[in-house]
Write a structure and sequence with these properties.
Layout (H helix, E strand, L loop, with lengths): L5 H11 L12 H5 L7 E6 L2 E6 L2 H4 L8 H7 L8
Antiparallel strand pairs: 1-2
Length: about 80
């Protein structure tokens, strides 16, 4: 999908999530940036298994003054790294 469409997709996902539970996976920095931190669950895997963790908007407040959520993800600051 074109990165310019990600904010529209995010809006549709947020709207649909008011009616039903949604689970969406992505490697799109643009989509992650279009979502509020409280709607993102980070998935990480290690030797002990797979771990899911909700983001803490308060902890990210200062970071989000300078970076988008997708940039923080790409930088490895919120976990769920791609590498």
């Amino acid at each position: 999908l074109h990165p310019d469409m990600m904010s529209t997709i995010a809006d549709l996902l947020i709207e649909a999530s008011q009616r039903t539970q949604l689970i969406v996976t992505t490697h799109s920095e643009a989509l992650v940036s279009s979502l509020p931190p409280e709607s993102v669950v980070v998935c990480e895997r290690d030797d002990l298994g797979t771990h899911l963790r909700r983001l803490d908007p308060e902890r990210l407040k200062k970071w989000l003054e300078d970076y988008s959520l997708g940039e923080l993800w790409s930088m490895g600051e919120i976990g769920g790294t791609r590498w």
